[in-house]
Amino acid sequence: MKKKEKQSKPISRKLKLPRNDEQFAVVVEMSGGSRMKALCADNKTRMIRIGGKLKKRMWCRENDLIIVKPWVIQSDQKADLVYRYLPTERNRVLHKIPEELNIWQT
Q1: Is the dihedral of CA 92, 75, 31, 54 positive or negative?
Q2: What's the pLDDT tens digit per position in 45-101?
Q3: Which residues, other chains included, contact 19 with Cβ-Cβ below 8 Å and sequence gap of 6+?
Q4: Is 105 among the domain residues?
Q5: How many domains does the chain have?
Q6: 70 inside domain
Q7: Measuring CA to CA, which residue among 72, 70, 39, 35 is closest to residue 54?
Q8: I want to staple 70 with a disulfide (CB 3.0 to 4.6 A). Which of 14, 75, 92, 98 is the partner?
Q9: Distance of CA 106 to CAs 3, 91, 102, Å?
Q10: CATH number for the domain that contains residue 87
Q11: Which pTM was predicted?
Q12: 79 and 49 in contact (C-beta within 8 Å)?
């Protein structure tokens, strides 16, 4: 006998938005070694670091929309990655990001 195939539902995650110190950013350049450069919502280019627990889980490419948290020290130059939006999530959040970061004009 054949097993019944389950129909899969499309997975939809709760939309995550930046909190207090966090902000939107767009990946500009991959530097290697879990580091990248990103253009942030305040028009500053920062070196973004992918933290230890996210290194294997969060794969980023250029032009990805991410949420970053600037460091307390060197806040104009460095930040940590908090979250990366999937393409379907990015389309749902496009109206909430600043126009300077919107490179996906439709």
Answers
A1: negative
A2: 999 998 877 777 778 889 999 999 999 999 899 999 999 998 888 888 888 888 777
A3: none
A4: no
A5: 1
A6: yes
A7: 35
A8: 75
A9: 44, 10, 10
A10: 2.40.50.140
A11: 0.81
A12: yes
